[in-house]
Design brief:
- The structure holds 2 protein chains of 2 kinds.
- Chain A is about 0% helix and about 55% strand.
- By secondary structure, chain A is mainly beta.
- Chain A is globular.
- Chain B has no helices and 11 strands.
- Classes of the chains: A mainly beta, B mainly beta.
- At the A-B interface, strand 10 of A face strand 4, strand 5 and strand 10 of B.
Chain lengths: ~110, ~110
């Protein structure tokens, strides 16, 4: 039990579909993150939220749209994705944004047809 | 930009031997260095971390050393067991974000 829950665990979608990834943390943290993990590459930070405010958008294409309605929930809305977007998408949380331990969920494995 | 180099990319050891994974970082302002273990089908799990005001930290069979002058840090696993087999990631905290290495796949042979 990681304290950070991601759903769905697997998602297959066509390039014209719209879907959303969900992340929920039960740790009382105030910062949440989206990362992209591809084979043979380091984890890529996508978005950061601190106290529900987006503090970082790491040059992510607009076809990825994050939403953070409260400190416990984080969404990643997907539309018109490309095959190169197939990857493992990881959510993480920490007490606050900064150089602190981040706790990860088990990810959503996304495949774009 | 900031980056973290991690070596080796794969490491195979015999059960009971020690394993060492090394990382170097470029941002001299980095002051937080966590290590994560990722098992198949799971997310990364924090196993140990160290801050720049400390040179070494140990937790049972796992230890991390930090050399700020040389800008490198290492993970040491002693008395390895098959359940230590996983991918290990180092990271450096830079400007409030973590910069990750590419990972080391550790295989412990029984």
């Amino acid at each position: 039990e990681t304290g950070v829950t991601q759903t769905p665990r697997h998602l297959v979608m066509g390039m014209t579909n719209k879907k959303s990834l969900k992340c929920e943390q039960h740790l009382g943290h105030n910062a949440m993150y989206w990362y992209k993990q591809s084979a043979k590459k380091p984890l890529e930070l996508m978005f950061v939220y601190n106290f529900k405010e987006q503090t970082e958008n790491n040059s992510v294409p607009s076809r990825f749209s994050p939403e953070c309605p409260n400190s416990s929930h984080l969404f990643l809305h997907l539309h018109t994705l490309q095959p190169e977007d197939s990857a493992l998408y990881l959510c993480a949380s920490s007490q606050e944004k900064g150089n602190q331990p981040q706790h990860f969920g088990d990810g959503t494995r996304l495949s774009i047809l | 930009g900031e980056n973290v180099e991690q070596h080796p990319s794969t490491l195979s050891v015999q059960e009971g031997d020690s394993a060492v994974i090394k990382c170097t970082y470029s941002d001299s302002a980095s002051n937080y260095f966590p290590w994560y273990k990722q098992e198949l089908g799971k997310g990364p799990q924090l196993i140990i971390d160290i801050r720049s005001n400390v040179g070494e930290k140990k937790d049972q069979r796992i230890a991390v050393t930090l050399n700020k002058t040389a800008k490198h840090f290492s993970l040491h696993i002693t008395e390895t067991q098959p359940e230590d087999s996983a991918v290990y990631f180092c990271a450096g905290g830079s400007q409030g974000n973590l910069i990750f290495g590419k990972g080391t796949k550790l295989s412990v042979k029984p």
